[in-house]
Every structure is written in C-alpha cells, then in structure tokens.
DNA sequence: AATCATCCCAACCGCCTGTGT
DNA sequence: TACACAGGCGGTTGGGATGAT
C-alpha cells in the first residue's frame, strides 16, 4: 500500500498560476492567515489547487517583500560560504538572505553561480595551461605535454590536488579535553553556560563576511571531520558523547564564522546545536571518501584532522578562498562530462 | 524566417520530520 | 509506542524565453 496522496490529484489544477488564483490566495491569506492548515486552505477559498502548491506559491512568490533576481556580490559570497559549511540546505541559506526564497537560491546556484565559478576557474586553468605549453615548447622538444596515462581520471586539470583524505597520521588530536574546546570557542567569541552547552546567542556576531576568514580559522584550529553516519556504530559511549560535543562546536563555529553582519536566527542556532553540519552533498567539495567514510586513526577510533591536514583538505594548494575550492570541486565534478583532451586520444 | 540549443525559473514530486492522538 | 497526517525540504522537470545557426 502506497502513501496516501495529500490531495485528490484528479480534481487539482497543476501548472502555472493565473492572476485570479494569485489574487484569491493572496487576499485570503492577508485577511485570515493560513489558518495553520494548508491542505484545507484551497477548499476554503475555492481554489482547485493542492495545499502544498498554495503554500509554495505563497512562500515563493506572493509573500510580501520577496526579491527576485539581481543577486549582489555579497549575496553570492554568503551563498558560497554557507554552501561550503552546510551544503545544499537552501532553506537555511535563504534564512540568511532577507527576501530570498530557498527555491530562488537553489535555482540561482544551479543555473548561474555554479557556472560563474566554473567559468572563472576554466579561464585561469586555460591561461596557465597555454603558458605552460609555451614554456615546454621553448625548452626544445616541440611536443606538448600530454598525460601519459590515459586512465588518468583527471587529464584536464592535472594540477588539481587530490582532496580525498590522506591516511591519518599519529598526531595527537588537538582537542582532547573540554578546556581545549572552550579555548577554541572563546577564541571564536563564544560563551558557555554552566552545563557546557554552547551559548550561540552570545557568540560574537561581528565576524566579517570575508571568506578568507574561513581559511584563517581552519589554519588555526583542528577540525573534526566525520560523516553523518550514526556515531554509536563505532564509538564507545564516552567517545560518542565527546564527538557529539565536537559536532556541536564545529557546527556552530563553522556557521558563525561564515555569517555576515547579523546574527543567525534562533532557529538556525538550534539547528546548529542539535545537528552536526552534514557533509552530504558536499562530495564535490570535500571528496567522496571524505563524505562517505569516517576518518579514523590507526586505533580505529574516529578522530580529528589537525590544522595542517584539514587545511590541505579543505583549502588545497592553489585554493585561496572558498570560491577557489568550489571552483576546483566543480571542475573535478565536471571532468567526466567533458570531451577528452585532444592530445590524449 | 525557421529551426535548434541552451538558459532559466516556477512548479511538482516524493521523502523526511515533527506533532497530535 | 505506533500510527496518521501536515508541513517542510531538496531534487528534478516542463516549458517559455532567448540566443545561435
């Protein structure tokens, strides 16, 4: 038995909304509100629409103060940095951009921002490649350098760093006690309540939107990287507890450091404190291995990557900003879709 | 002018989560 | 505790708009 439909599909109109439908919905909600029940709403006002469709229409189009198009550079930066931090959680990203809807941002990312970053990077790569070839020709053999290994999965951008996690070293984790975590949070401008819960509200909201801050932070701190897989599978209870604390801190710090001038709304803070930042969907940024596998120490326990390793994973050589990372990841993601390098045939 | 390709965005779909019973 | 239901979300798609040939 399948799931019950949310409405009678046969008696429901689909497709673009007419101005009359818009007017009906808008005037009703402005006068009466949604009544807390979207499913019942279309019947009340005589619309042959699914409740979900009404909700979407209101949220994405009819709601007051909605902005469409014309994303600013600053908004681009915020989207990029939040995408790095939390992935494709468009509703959360949208909450940071007043007047923007999750749908708008999602579309903007998929259709423009991604390509914009990709285009920039390709130009740079092309410039570097052609200058490299010229130099090679000058040196005398007259033959351009062609990757010898046709199985190379990334023949186009040989300079791209491998972002998959390197085998973990025997470094001691930097944050092996709560005081270390406190130090990090204090450094970040955080405060603690008595029960060691991070008080996100008290954290300094003045971090610059400047993306380089992200790198600064990674350069200075250890970061715990793990997937969203259940902790209990691999950890002792105490370890799991501690790891959860790290999750909370990383999530809060990660988001906090990426925000602009205003504080995150309470809902976001709650999300951060109760959910670790998921890496799902960030494969193209962090590498499949990083997302799909736990990073473990030689002892088989989940561990942290120290600042040097993390920096090299998150900010590989040549990636000077989050934009750089995204560009590089996008390029790797697209490498298989591209026609093969002519010389490698 | 006609055709084809690509871009863009509104809307849909189905899954997940939270809440009430 | 289990279930049903509505809301919310992210991924995907359909089709109009625009540009290229």
TrEMBL record:
<feature type="domain" description="HTH myb-type">
    <location>
        <begin position="63"/>
        <end position="117"/>
    </location>
</feature>
<feature type="region of interest" description="Disordered">
    <location>
        <begin position="118"/>
        <end position="153"/>
    </location>
</feature>
<feature type="domain" description="HTH myb-type">
    <location>
        <begin position="9"/>
        <end position="62"/>
    </location>
</feature>
<protein>
    <recommendedName>
        <fullName>Transcription factor RAX3-like</fullName>
    </recommendedName>
</protein>
<keyword id="KW-0539">Nucleus</keyword>
<dbReference type="GO" id="GO:0003677">
    <property type="term" value="F:DNA binding"/>
</dbReference>
<dbReference type="InterPro" id="IPR017930">
    <property type="entry name" value="Myb_dom"/>
</dbReference>
<dbReference type="GO" id="GO:0005634">
    <property type="term" value="C:nucleus"/>
</dbReference>
<feature type="domain" description="Myb-like">
    <location>
        <begin position="63"/>
        <end position="113"/>
    </location>
</feature>
<feature type="domain" description="Myb-like">
    <location>
        <begin position="9"/>
        <end position="62"/>
    </location>
</feature>
<keyword id="KW-0238">DNA-binding</keyword>
<dbReference type="InterPro" id="IPR001005">
    <property type="entry name" value="SANT/Myb"/>
</dbReference>
<keyword id="KW-0677">Repeat</keyword>
<dbReference type="Pfam" id="PF00249">
    <property type="entry name" value="Myb_DNA-binding"/>
</dbReference>
<keyword id="KW-0804">Transcription</keyword>
<dbReference type="InterPro" id="IPR009057">
    <property type="entry name" value="Homeodomain-like_sf"/>
</dbReference>
<keyword id="KW-0805">Transcription regulation</keyword>
């Amino acid at each position: 038995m399948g799931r019950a439909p949310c409405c009678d599909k046969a008696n429901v109109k689909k497709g673009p909304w007419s101005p009359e439908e818009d007017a009906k919905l808008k005037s009703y909600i402005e006068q009466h509100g949604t009544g807390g029940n979207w499913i019942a709403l279309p019947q009340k006002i005589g619309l042959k629409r699914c409740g979900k469709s009404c909700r979407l229409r209101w949220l994405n189009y009819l709601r007051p103060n909605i902005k469409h198009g014309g994303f600013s550079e600053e908004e681009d930066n915020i989207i990029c940095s939040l995408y790095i931090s939390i992935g494709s959680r468009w509703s959360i990203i949208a909450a940071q951009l007043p007047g923007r809807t999750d749908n708008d941002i999602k579309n903007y990312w998929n259709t423009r921002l991604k390509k914009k970053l990709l285009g920039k990077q390709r130009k740079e790569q092309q410039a570097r490649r052609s200058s490299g070839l010229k130099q090679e020709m000058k040196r005398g053999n007259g033959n351009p350098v062609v990757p010898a290994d046709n199985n190379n999965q990334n023949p186009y951008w040989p300079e791209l760093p491998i972002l998959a996690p390197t085998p973990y070293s025997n470094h001691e984790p930097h944050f092996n006690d709560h005081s270390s975590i406190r130090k990090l949070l204090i450094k970040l401008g955080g405060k603690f309540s008595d029960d060691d819960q991070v008080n996100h509200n008290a954290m300094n909201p003045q971090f610059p939107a400047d993306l380089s801050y992200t790198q600064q932070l990674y350069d200075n701190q250890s970061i715990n990287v793990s997937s969203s897989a259940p902790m209990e599978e691999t950890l002792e209870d105490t370890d799991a507890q501690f790891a959860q604390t790290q999750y909370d801190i990383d999530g809060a710090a990660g988001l906090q450091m990426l925000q602009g001038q205003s504080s995150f709304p309470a809902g976001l803070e709650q999300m951060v404190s109760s959910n670790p930042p998921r890496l799902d969907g960030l494969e193209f940024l962090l590498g499949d291995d990083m997302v799909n596998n736990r990073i473990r120490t030689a002892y088989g326990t989940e561990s942290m990557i120290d600042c040097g390793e993390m920096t090299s994973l998150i900010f590989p050589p040549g990636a000077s900003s989050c934009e750089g990372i995204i560009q590089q990841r996008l390029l790797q993601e697209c490498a298989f879709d591209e026609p093969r390098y002519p010389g490698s045939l």
